[in-house]
Amino acid sequence: MLAIAKASCFLAGSFLVLALSTDAMAARLCGDQSNNGAVTAADALGVLKASVGSLTCDICVCDANHSGTITAGDALLVLKFAVGQPVGLNCASCDCYQAAAPQCGGDCEGSRICAVSPWDPTHTSCECVTPCEIAAAPACGASCEGSERPEDVCTHVEFTYGDVVEDRCECLPPGTKACQDTSSPACGGACGGGHQCVSQSGKCKCIKLAEQGPCAEAEAPACAGTCGENQLCQVSGDSCVCGESMGDDPCYNVTAPMCGAACSGGRLCATEVISGCGCFEPCGVKDAPACNGSCLDPQTTCAVTIAKIGNSSIQFCECR
Fold first, then answer.
1. Residue 38 CB: number of other CB atoms within 10 A?
2. Does residue 238 lie in a domain region?
3. Do 27 and 107 meet the contact criterion of CB atoms below 8 Å apart?
4. What is the pLDDT of residues 87-104, one digit of tens each?
5. By the 8 A CB rule, do 251 and 288 touch?
């Protein structure tokens, strides 16, 4: 999944640039409750504590017998393994989004790494990212290996919102510019969420695309309507209904600029800043500087952010 889509590319919010160790990025070891790279008797004690709720442990690390729950039986199994008895540990695969921050040792597809999400202002969730996306700005000398666009380079982007200035590293196509700074008729520049860079009267302009409505009003089989929290617009016969979201939102897998797929949690599927489709809060697809869209978190408000890439800049709406 594209970092710029997950972050609404320039929906930067509040970021933390993290220097993670190699151990923190490695896959979690079944039974290794302490996450130190080995299974020991101390881990068995940790699993036992997790089974009675006195500490937390990912089920993909402490459910050593793959029963679906963490019990004293798992602790005993880990202890037997730790002292060399001929037993095996059988944990479920630890997907990155299920892993615990700050260790974030979950599995990622391809060459991405599991790290503390640079897009989560609480810094408590894990995300599959490229090395670039957690690199130190403004140097941004890390690799974009794992980016869905093979031509991407690690690019310094400066975000300004209110009196706050934040530096980030993003995987972007070489020479990325704001829409108005690109040449017509190619017009491959960056726009805010839900907008497309097109040629009009010999100039490149960001044109707003149509927004999604409620799921019940969407057309099957695309079912690109909005639903409530933790729900996704899904096909039911010839109609669209809201059901439980079971994984990645389909929006990330469709082609821009149509973005005709669903997002969970009341978000909208729309074009992200460079290309492709991403999930946005209603605020994120409104026109700046008005920014009159709603935010899913009542403690945030819809406001303007400015992103500067080299000598080019765009402004867009985000919740913060």
1. 12
2. no
3. yes
4. 899 887 778 877 777 878
5. no
